[in-house]
Write a structure and sequence with these properties.
Elements lengths: L1 H9 L9 H9 L22 E4 L2 E4 L7 E6 L6 E7 L2 E7 L6 E4 L5 E12 L2 E12 L21 H9 L6 H15 L1 E2 L1 H8 L10 H7 L1 E2 L1 H13 L5 E8 L2 E9 L5 E4 L1 H5 L7 E6 L1
Parallel strand pairs: 9-10
Antiparallel strand pairs: 1-2, 2-3, 3-6, 4-5, 4-7, 7-8, 11-12, 11-14, 12-13
Helix pairs in contact: 3-7, 4-7, 6-7
Length: 286
């Protein structure tokens, strides 16, 4: 039952023929509907081979060698915090409580990880509800930057089709980066209102939604970085979404793995505004 729900949510399920009502809606929004199905090579699965469960929480660790785990929690309306730790590195996430799996990367390399779920008691007070240690040995160190995850969920998106069209004739990772960069620069504007709502705390929890950015043609740095990562990952190009500081501004940008093995920094937000940062300091990466 759960596996079926997961596959329905994370496997691309866009049909080759689209219903008349949807076609009309897309036409009204001036969105091109591609004819051919987009290719997806990296599809997370909660296959149930290795699972850990406790009081409504299930951690599926069947594919840690591919650089991800999946977790769900059922029947809880309280705010949930997921913490993934390796050595002295800690990554915190919000987890939904709707009984659907979400995908989280194992981007800290090989070794022993601790996965913990905390439930909100009151305000900023949380209690530990689940804890599990897992051992990770990656088949390839770049796999966490190819699969979709909570922050870069490119499956079931129109942006996926756009990436296919943009990169149809691109032979190298650099060619694909140039194609995506051209699209971002020509189409996506900075959303100053959303930026103000996030920085003021009016928006307290924010996750990028690739199709919201793609259809509205607007976003903040988090949206730019997620859209770029999703489009390039869908084309088989390992791409990091990095959060940190550009000069003194908290910011998000990308690092793209080129064919020669080097990582190229791409900052879509600043590229669109024709500006540059003098220095970058990485805080987190996904």
């Amino acid at each position: 039952m759960r596996t079926a729900r997961v596959m329905g949510r994370y496997r691309r399920a866009v049909p080759r023929s689209v219903g008349a009502a949807l076609l009309c809606a897309l036409a009204a929004a001036c969105i091109r509907v591609p004819v051919a199905a987009a290719r997806v090579d990296y599809i997370p699965q909660a296959s149930g081979e290795v699972t850990y469960s406790k009081k409504g929480t299930t951690l599926d660790a069947s594919h840690t060698d591919q650089g991800y785990v999946m977790m769900l929690h059922e029947g809880n309306l309280k705010r949930l915090k997921l913490r993934i730790t390796r050595a002295d590195q800690v990554f915190d996430y919000d987890l939904n409580g709707d009984g659907n799996y979400e995908v989280f990367p194992l981007q800290m390399g090989d070794g022993a990880y601790q996965v913990q779920l905390y439930q909100q008691v009151k305000d900023t007070k949380y209690s530990l509800a689940f804890s599990q240690k897992i051992k990770v040995s990656l088949a390839d160190e770049n796999l966490p930057y190819l699969y979709p995850s909570q922050y870069v969920n490119y499956l079931d998106t129109l942006a996926l089709y756009e990436a296919d069209a943009l990169c149809a004739d691109a032979a190298t990772a650099l060619d694909k980066l140039k194609a995506v960069r051209g699209y971002i620069k020509a189409n996506i504007q900075y959303d100053y209102l959303k930026a103000q709502q996030v920085t003021s705390g009016q928006i307290k929890i924010y996750l990028p939604n690739l199709d919201d950015t793609y259809t509205s043609k607007r976003g903040i740095c988090f949206d730019y970085a997620a859209l770029v990562a999703g489009m390039l990952r869908s084309q088989g190009v390992p791409t990091k979404m990095i959060i940190g500081y550009a000069d003194k501004q908290y910011h998000a940008w990308n690092a793209v793995l080129l064919d020669d093995g080097t990582w190229a920094r791409y900052d879509g937000t600043l590229d669109v505004s024709n500006s540059k940062a003098q220095s970058y300091a990485q805080d987190r990466w996904y």
